[in-house]
Amino acid sequence: AKKDGRGCYRFFSPEMDTDVRLQRAFELQLREALPRREFELHYQPIVDLATCRPCAVEALVRWRHPEHGLIPPDKFIPVAEEIGLIIPLGEWILATACRAAADWPSDIRLAVNLSAKQVVAGDLVEVVRRALADTGLPAGRLELEITESVLLQKDHDSLAVLHGLAALGVHVVLDDFGTGYSSLSYLQLFPFSKIKIDRTFVAELTTRADCAAIVSSVTTLARALAMGTTAEGVETWDQVALLRVAGCREAQGWLFGRPVPAAALSFEPAADCAP
Ligand code: C2E
Ligand code: CA
Ligand code: CA
Ligand code: CA
């Protein structure tokens, strides 16, 4: 038994001991992954729903672990945030993605995910400014995706940071819309140029009338606020048809392309863009 901070006794079983040791080993390997160049970015197209032509590409990080193979971001980003690694990792992601995007056709934008920890770190605007200057990527071609968790950071002026980013000329995008608890007033308060509709709504679009109603309401609201909309997780043409009716502008999902390494990225329109 071990005494914890509040003077209570907590019992550690041998399995919990092993769990803690595994967790520490995982953190150590994660810290070493950056200098060992084990992270890689995969890229997924975002298409214009009118033409099915790619208009942007989202960078998605993966960890190529020497023993366990490719590890998805959901498995290590939360740990990277806990141990502070997300700051240097986030800078690497931004610089690497901007360097790749500088070679793409000039009408293709780059979308990069930001952790809430990067927004509160203090020098995000300078980090972004430097990534653009170093790679020559025009600010207008960069979209920074943040989730509602950023808006809920108490005691921090996230609003000023997001305005600083917008002042650079980059687009600030609200990711995973509909999954959190933030109020609609945030849409008015923060300088978003686009809303990404979470794939949980898209997944049920063809089977649940309430999901279709939510998607229509979000696109209508976005249009009224002069913001764009991207539907995430689009896997079928039936979903595309309903998204077009709802007035959604852009879509991303396996139907149009899975995330792939930079060298495998194609900017060709989807072969079968059902009208
Ligand atoms: P997200 O930003 O919502 O990214 C979209 C996720 O949906 C990606 O998962 C993508 O592979 C997956 N996806 C795309 N199309 C489809 C589809 O048609 N069907 C289904 N079922 N899934 C689809 P991924 O790459 O595993 O990333 C998961 C999350 O990890 C991301 O969610 C994002 O929150 C985070 N993440 C990824 N890369 C980064 C990064 O560079 N920095 C930070 N801070 N977070 C990242
Ligand atoms: Ca995203
Ligand atoms: Ca998302
Ligand atoms: Ca997500």
Number of strands: 12
Overall shape: it is globular
- Elements, N to C (H/E): EEHEEEHHEHHEHHEHEHHEHEE
List ligands, each type once. ligand C2E, calcium ion
What is the percent of helical residues? 40-55%
Largest sheet: 8 strands, mixed, barrel
Kindly estimate the percentage of residues that lie in beta strands according to DSSP. 15-25%
Q: State the secondary-structure class.
A: alpha/beta
Question: Strands of the biggest beta sheet: in what spatial order?
Answer: 3-4-6-7-8-9-10-11
Radius of gyration equals 20 Å
Count the DSSP helices. Answer: 11
Termini separation comes to 66 Å
Low-confidence parts, pLDDT < 50 over ≥5 residues?
none
Taking all residues together, what is the mean pLDDT?
A: 91
Protein name: Diguanylate cyclase
